Amino acid sequence: MASKIIGVLGLQGDFREHIEKLHALDAQTKDIRRVSDLENIDALIIPGGESTAVAIVEKSDTAHGIFEKIRELSSDGLPIWGTCMGSILLAKNIEGSTQGRLGVMDITVRRNAFGPQRFSSEMPISIPAIGEEPFPGVFIRAPLITNVGENVEVLGTLEQGIVMAREKNLLATVFHPEVVDDARVHKYFLSMIG
Ligand code: GLN
Fold first, then answer.
1. How far apart are CA 77 and CA 93, in angstroms?
2. Tell me, what's the pLDDT at 2?
3. What share of the chain in percent tops pLDDT 70?
4. Residue 2's Cα: distance from chain center in Å?
5. What are 12-36's pLDDT values in tens digits?
6. How many beta carbons lie within 10 A of that of residue 115, not counting itself?
7. What residue ranges in 18-177 does DSSP mark as E strands?
8. Measured in angstroms, how far is the CA atom of residue 3 from the centroid of ligand 1?
9. Contact residues of ligand 1, CB 6 A cut-off
10. Alpha carbon distance 169, 5 (integer Å)
11. Rounded to the nearest whole angstrom, what is the distance from the C-alpha of residue 88 to the centroid of ligand 1?
12. Which atom of ligand 1 is nearest to the CA of 176?
């Protein structure tokens, strides 16, 4: 079977780390910077970064229309995974904000919910869907998922709240699996490709 092509949104943020992780798993990747790049991909990752910056870049001449096309692909069932900033862009609701977003996943997020972290912190997360061993969760100015719709499955929680959730073809993690030496969340996402 031909290996799957995973698009990684490369407008801003830590897309390179995702690409390296995917290559280590023998998946092919494609940089997504303009609407036409979204053709012929089997899944899409939206990396960590700064959600307000991406919403601005998306309005530039080169990137314009990317959000609209991703919304279309999302309703067609394309597997889409947002990490940290990506989870904010996927969310239908962002507490106290009207910033630009994809708004495709029935979750509410609270940005910078761990306070103004100057450094990242690491906390083990229990994620039964990927195995018994806790996953090393890296949080960098991370949001929390503060509410989920009825079709959303909560996959990981901490004392502070929900940190990983799935709604059909959409996956959100508020932490950064691309920066740790554990590929289980990337493998889980690849398993969502039909
Ligand atoms: N705080 C960032 C935002 O609100 C997200 C941080 C991250 O992706 N590491 O967009």
1. 21
2. 63
3. 98
4. 24
5. 999 999 999 999 999 999 999 999 9
6. 7
7. 28-32, 43-46, 80-83, 91-94, 105-110, 121-125, 135-139, 144-148, 153-158, 161-167, 170-173
8. 31
9. 48-51, 84-85, 88, 111-112, 140-141
10. 16
11. 8
12. 9
- Produce one character per residue of 151-162: b if its CB has 16 or more CB atoms within 10 Å, e if not: ebeebbbbeebb
- Going along the chain, which residue ranges are E strands? 5-9, 28-32, 43-46, 80-83, 91-94, 105-110, 121-125, 135-139, 144-148, 153-158, 161-167, 170-173
Tokens (6 digits) for 171? 């996956």
Atom of ligand 1 nearest to the CA of 52: 10
Fold of 5-191: Rossmann fold (3.40.50)
Token pair for 149:
């719709």
**Chain position carrying tokens 């870049």:** 57
pLDDT digits (tens, 9 = 90+) for 83-95: 999 999 999 999 9
